[in-house]
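Late entry, written up from scratch paper. The run itself happened at the end of the previous shift, but nothing got recorded in the book at the time, so transcribing now.
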Amino acid sequence: MKKFSIIALIASVALMSACGPKDPGLKDAYKNYFKIGVAVTERNVADSLQAAIILKEFNSVTAENCMKPGEIHPQAGVWNFEKADAIANFCREHGIKMRGHNLVWHSQFATWMFTKHDENGNPVVELDEKGDTVWVERPAFGRFGGFPGFPGFGGQRPDGAPAMQMTKTPKYVAASKEEFYDSLKSHIFTVVNRYKDVIYCWDVVNEAMSDSNDLNASYEDSFRKSQAYQLCGDEFIKNAFIWAHEADPTAGLFYNDYSAWTPAKRTYIYNMVKKLQSEGAPITGIGMQGHYNIFDNPTLEDFEKAINMYLELVDDIQITEFDIRINEEAGGGLQFSRGEGQVYTEEIQQQQEQKYKDLFEIMRKYKKNISCVTFWNLSDRDSWLGANNYPLLFDSEYQRKPVYYTVRDFKKNK
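Output as recorded:
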């Protein structure tokens, strides 16, 4: 057995036996405020140490990737339930409720829905005037940090930039809007019904708004020009919420986005939610993704302004993907700097602790309307940002960092 495995086993036993009052978990410290959640993989719940941390510290769980449309439903008629089931069954066994993440997202989407299929479920290939298959050259998409959708990279160009691989694939006939809706509705009903006993809310639509940062943008220009938007306009958002509600009338239904604190994007989100609610979309909550940094993202003033703005439309706000990196990137930006990071000096550590302290003070202020704060990954080792950005409360060896106590022991630190 590896040294780390022995240490992990001993630590997990010690952690599970720790008595509550002397060593409360995060969920215990915040029991009068809001749920404390965590995004996990199937590996987290299968490891004894990591599972022990989840059970001690958190009372809400999100599947980081395996419930996203492209992961769980990669082709027509093909379902990958194994990883999602492993996490859901762990939560069922231990009495933990889940956030569903997510039903519609342009990045890890079931893009086959945009292709016409025949009666046997096969994609319909476009033919030329001779009856031969039409071929197109596309980037060879690979995986980066667990996220498909980034171009596949095959080595480096002389200037150091990654070289993009290309591949030839058949050109398929595009689905009509009605065909797309048939596929999307079926997907939503299948997934929601499978997990409705353990999932208490869903990120129904994820990141549909533009990053243009233009306060004067028209309503149409405030949207990300995804395939779904180009085909359906904002109607696909409304329909997704309606179908999710029909599948589970008791679930909270969230629109979820990053940089939701910025003046431009919070305006885009506000206008979209207000309009679609007036048209019958049952949007009951707004998810403000964290993905912040220790500098000015977010500013505390704008963070609180966004909360108050959203409370004009919904009663339920969640901080859905919380981490605070130590470099200057933020939001959905990653730009392949996961391995770089900065040196985690004492000064940087203090800045991070202060940012966590300030944001949690604001969130506690709105405890009547903030129902859950979800850390995006269990430890720095697991983080999509990379361990060298030190974004979370547990380090790469699953040990509590000083910032953990800043968050947990806020009553003592007053």
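Residues 53 and 82 are 23 Å apart (CA to CA).
(Scratch paper discarded after transcription.)
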